[in-house]
Amino acid sequence: MFDWLAGRLRFIGSPFVEALIKLGFGTRFFFAVLFQSGMALRRFNLIIRETYYTGVLSLVIIVVSGLFVGMVLCLQGYDTLTRYGSAEASGVLVALSLLRELGPVVSGLLFASRAGSAITAEIGLMKATEQLVAMEMMAVNPVARVIAPRFWAGVLSMPLLALLFSAVGIFGGYLVGVVWLGLDKGTFWSQMQAQVDLHYDIGNGIIKSLIFGVAVSTIAVFEGFDAQPTAEGVSGATTRTVVTSSLAILGLDFILTAFMLRGT
Amino acid sequence: MNRRIYDFWVGLFVTVGMLSLTFLVLRVSNASEAAAKATYRVTAAFDNIGGLKVRAPVKSAGVVVGRVSGIRLDPKSYRAIVSIDIEQGFQFSKDSSADILTSGILGDQYVGLEPGGDEANLKDGDKITLTSSAIVLEKLISQFMFSKAADNKDSAAAPAAATPAK
Amino acid sequence: MPDSPLVEVDNVTFAYDARTILKGISLSIPRGKVVAIMGGSGCGKTTLLRLIGGQIKPSRGEVRVAGKVVNELDSDALYLLRRKMGMLFQFGALFTDMSVYENVAFQMREHTDLPESMIRDLVLMKLNAVGLRGAARLMPSELSGGMARRVALARAIALDPMLMMYDEPFAGLDPISLGVIGQLIRQLNDALGATSILVTHDVMESLAIVDYVYFVSEGKIVAQGTADEIRASEEPFVRQFVGGLPDGPVPFQYPAAPYAEDLMGVKRV
Questions:
Q1: Residue C74 DSSP code
Q2: Long-range Cβ contact pairs of C12-15 (< 8 A, separation 24 or more)
Q3: CA distances to A123, A151, B98 from A37, in Å
Q4: d(Cα A112, Cα A213) in Å, to the nearest integer?
Q5: Is B3 on the interface with A (CB under 8 A)?
Q6: Between C73 and which of A105, B35, C77, C268 could a Cys-Cys bridge form, CB atoms 3.0 to 4.6 Å apart?
Q7: C179-235: per-residue pLDDT in tens?
Q8: Beta pairing partners, C68
């Protein structure tokens, strides 16, 4: 009977234990990537090449999404604010929402699904076709040569993408608010300038996107490296990257916002 | 060949990102106000600063002339010492007064400066001596109620004083 | 010490997840020779290659390459040793994001300071040796299986290693490519003055080119000898293997209950 109980406990507990083991391995891997970054930083063209694939190729989706998010925000904001006679605050609404929250978070989610999954799939496939082992046998550390550049490319790209998202979104808000809905152009920008603080809103937004960049890049690179070297293994790893990154972004966003709001 | 293409696109990407940052900083945020204009610093002591915050505006006749740069409590006099950075272009007389006002009815608080008649002007490090504190809502209400109670007492005492003198 | 073997596997036991794959196995690879390690699937031959290359450590025993104990080397020394080894993986394992030229040039660019002009000459020489100089600009996805493997071979010999290891070099190739790879293995070994280890279960092709053969079954060496000795061997495992016989020391039927019982579905008393 005791065996039965132990068996049941093992059945319930083993996913948690597995998750803990994976988390531990992931943390070790994260530090290994940091220590092995010397080569990537000395041979910066490796990072540049990867930044092309993670950052530049994400530009289209970020810009288009940013534009639409900004436009919708202004539209919705205008609809509600007119009821209280505060329609001119639409610009402020769009700017603050984007800079503080939506910019880093939404661009982070998009980045995770587009670039993060691509990184995981690529590394997973390299593992499955023994390319990483081959590199090791040629006395080149694959973590330094393949993994670290992709990690740093992600960390570099994320803040830039988030800034672009916010900027394009605010422009989208301008298009809807001023050009379409007829708000006063001067009030739109001056209200925004009065309420948006450089350090608090823009600075915190950049900090958030940097942290999200580190999180997404770590998860993407780790899941690829840890994937089972089969077709199902790689596909499972890719979906796990997107899911885990998204949850991490949302969780970190809450924690960071709580920290940052305490400042006021 | 390939390396040059990567460099080009990544360079473009970083440029676009930096341009977004510049746009956000200059056109969207209040940074243009916080631009490095030369300022001089004076202090003023208040009994109560209410909800005044650092980086609150300092206005004269409604025009922003500076920013609150620091707030601390003087441990000896228990008054709030507020440091103000005033732009070099604006000169105020030594007997100017500083009041803590509220924008709108329930808005943010700011410092209002009213110039006096003194010929000498405030310099960096000077103290503004004429100050009036912020209006704290609770004190206002208790003042109102106290005066209301006093009125009632007077009007109750007046007829009472009138009747015995009959 | 020109007569000492290049690689020595000394009484090595290797276990993984409660399964013992190698049980106290010992073999030695003399310098300058081409040696085949043969056996059925899962008998531990690829594990031997990994032990020699330092990817895994034995649970017991030692693996020595050029006198150095591989499992005791620190990572810098291990990397130095690996620069003198070349390994050909089963499906080539070419870097898919680089062209054929860049794959072969990889080791030269990473480990040497040679100028690009010299690298270009060397890459073209190596590709010429495997007959693919004209394919230098192609990407790995544009190559057939046999061609990919030859490019991987050119890449493995890029720095003229002293030890070449081949993991199933003949698997899945058409007859022409089989012959080509076999000849290349022999010729390159002799031209470079290197030592080669072939892990394979392709009997015909290997016996044609090797100097010595080890047969591994269930984690132990069951037979060894020169190509002629193996062909003439009376050892049952060798005969089954070389002859391709369905039943022998390696049974045809997977262990199961007696046939009659399974069909009848009733246990006979």
A1: -
A2: C12/C51, C12/C58, C12/C60, C12/C61, C12/C62, C12/C63, C13/C58, C13/C59, C13/C60, C13/C61, C14/C44, C14/C47, C14/C51, C14/C56, C14/C58, C14/C59, C15/C59
A3: 17, 9, 56
A4: 9
A5: yes
A6: C77
A7: 889 999 999 999 989 999 999 888 888 888 999 999 888 888 888 888 888 888 878
A8: C65
Each residue's pLDDT, cut to its tens digit, for chain A (264 residues) gives 788 888 888 888 888 888 888 889 999 999 999 999 998 889 899 999 999 999 999 999 999 999 999 999 999 999 999 898 888 889 999 999 999 999 999 999 999 999 999 999 999 999 999 999 999 999 999 999 999 999 999 999 999 999 999 999 999 999 999 999 988 888 888 888 878 878 788 889 999 999 999 999 999 999 999 999 999 999 999 999 999 999 999 999 999 999 887 554
Cβ distance of A193 and B28 shorter than 8 Å: yes
Structure tokens at C154: 């050119």
Distance CA A197, CA A187 (A): 17
Q: How far apart are CA B117 and CA A213, in angstroms?
A: 58
Q: How many CB pairs under 8 A join A and C?
A: 46
* Two tokens, residue B116: 């006096």
Q: Kindly report the pTM of this predicted structure.
A: 0.80
| DSSP codes of every residue in B137-160 | HHHHHHHHHHHHHHHHHHHHHHHH
Query: Helix or strand or coil: residue B39?
Result: strand
Q: How far is CA A89 from the centre of its chain?
A: 29
Distance CA C95, CA C136 (A): 14
Provide the 10 A C-beta neighbour count for residue C143: 19
Cα C172 to the chain's mean position, in Å?
15
The label of the residue with tokens 């050029």 reads C66
Element (H, E) at A36: none
Backbone angles phi, psi at C134, to 5 degrees: -75, -15
What is the DSSP-derived secondary structure letter of residue B135? P
Between strands B63-73 and B57-60, the pairing is antiparallel
Look at residues A51, A62, A59 and name the one whose alpha carbon lies nearest to residue A98.
A62
Residues of C numbered 77-116 whose beta carbons fall under 8 angstroms of chain A's beta carbons: which are they?
Answer: 79-80, 82-83, 85, 87, 89-91, 93-96, 106-107, 110-111
Task: Judge whether C217 and C249 are in contact, CB under 8 Å.
Answer: yes
> What value, to the nearest 5°, has the Cα angle with vertex A201 and ends A199 and A204?
75
Residues in chain B: 166
Q: Which domains does chain C possess?
A: 7-84+161-264 (3.40.50.300)
Please name which of A214, A263, A220, A244 lies closest in space to residue A100, comparing C-alpha atoms: A263
Rounded to whole angstroms, the Cα distance separating A155 from C260 reads 66
Nearest residue to C193 via CA among C9, C57, C59, C33? C33
Q: How many CB atoms lie within 10 A of CB B61?
A: 9
Give me C212's structure tokens.
């010595």
CA A21 → CA A14, A15, A17, A26, distances in Å? 10, 10, 6, 8
C240 touching chain A per CB within 8 A: no
Q: Which two tokens stand for residue A239?
A: 């979906």
Give the best residue of B12, B23, B24 to mutate against chain A (max A CB count within 10 A).
B24
What share of residues in chain A are helix, strand, coil (percent, to 5)?
90, 0, 10
Minimal-distance CA residue of chain A relative to B54? A264
